[in-house]
Amino acid sequence: MPGPRRRGTDSAGRRGPKAPRAHATARRRLAASDARDVEPLEPRTLLSSAVPSAPFPSGDQFPVHVAAESPASGSSVAIGADGSFVVAWQAPDADQSGIYARRFDASGNALAGEFPVNSTTALVQSKPSVAVVAGGGLVVAWQSDGQDGSGYGIYARRFGPGGETAGDEFALNTMTDGGQTTPAVAAAPGGGFVAAWMDRVHDGDGPGIFARRFDAAGAALDVAEFRVNDEVIGAQADPALGVDAVGNLVVAWQIQDGAGDYHVLARRFGADGVARGVDVQVTTAPSLFVSAGCSINGNSTKGSFSRRGQSP
Ligand SMILES: [Ca+2]
Ligand SMILES: [Ca+2]
């Protein structure tokens, strides 16, 4: 039985000239909301530590990963309220790659050795994102190939303040068909967390961004993931997110328009999980970079510029 007709395609499902027009419409709409919701671009500033007594970086660079026989890549870092921090990365495990993490104090001294994060090692686990939650515990999210039965899926595992495991890994996505990839995770008030990821199937027009909220015990606050991007035309990718002290959420992502240029967009959600308006265009000029990337509150996916917006 044929599914619903995809936007930007004709009745036979072929891509037609509607897609560029849709992009132009989306851009005009975003430009209008941009003027309303976002302040002018600020000068670029070197970000420093949130802990004045222990600025970071300080001193020389130092190795995080000590198993020299295996290549490590794809690192993610998060800093806690006391200045201690955790780094997660991907490196070979029992089958292809897996996720590892290591904790450091505010001076950069390792608190313990690196430890494996994923318990299911079959195929590839990659693209970790780590957050320090209230109370000093950790949550690490990653993408795992084949584990949810259809391509990649999103998994997470929680750790206590001492780095001890707090339960086994668990799936974050409920819609498992096709690929769910490139998670970003951020701490939420009360010890919970929010995760966002790219889903290649379910927004109706190629990849889109979905998110789901979890409490301090790892229980889902949303029955299922919700779509983040209001405009579904095109490929929304590479999400980053930030959560404020009362649970308001901002998710940013990149999109490639019909001309091949990249833009960064964002959308706000209240602590009730309800969207506050539509997508806001963050970038004022198209980027020719292969990947624009974006970062909010230090939950970095790739280096980029920052721009200040109003809270919900
Ligand atoms: Ca593996
Ligand atoms: Ca999947």
Description:
- By secondary structure, the chain is mostly beta strands.
- The chain has a single domain, classed as Neuraminidase.
- Helices cover 6% and strands 35% of the residues.
- It has one helix and 18 strands.
- The strands form five sheets. A four-stranded antiparallel β-sheet has the order 1-2-3-4, with no helix packed on it. It has a four-stranded antiparallel β-sheet with strand order 5-6-7-8, with no helix packed on it. The chain has a four-stranded antiparallel β-sheet with strand order 9-10-11-12, with no helix packed on it.
- Strand 10 and strand 11 form a beta hairpin.
- The longest helix is centred in the N-terminal third of the chain and has 20 residues.
- The protein is globular and about 45 Å long.
- The structure holds calcium ion (CA) (2 copies).
Q: Over the alpha carbons, how many angstroms does the gyration radius reach?
A: 20 Å
Mean pLDDT: 80
The quaternary state of the protein chains shown equals single chain
Number of strands: 18
Number of domains: 1
Assigned CATH architecture: 6 Propeller
Order of helices and strands: HEEEEEEEEEEEEEEEEEE
Count of helical regions: 1
Q: What is the rounded distance between the termini?
A: 42 Å
Range of strand content: 35-45%
For the record, the CATH class is: Mainly Beta
| Bound small molecules, deduplicated | calcium ion
Query: Which runs of at least 5 residues are low in confidence (pLDDT < 50)?
Result: 1-56, 298-306
Q: What overall geometry do the principal axes of the alpha carbons give?
A: globular
Strand order of the largest sheet: 1-2-3-4
The main pleated sheet reads as:
4 strands, antiparallel
How much helix, percentage-wise, in residues? Answer: under 10%
The CATH topology turns out to be: Neuraminidase
Structural class: mainly beta
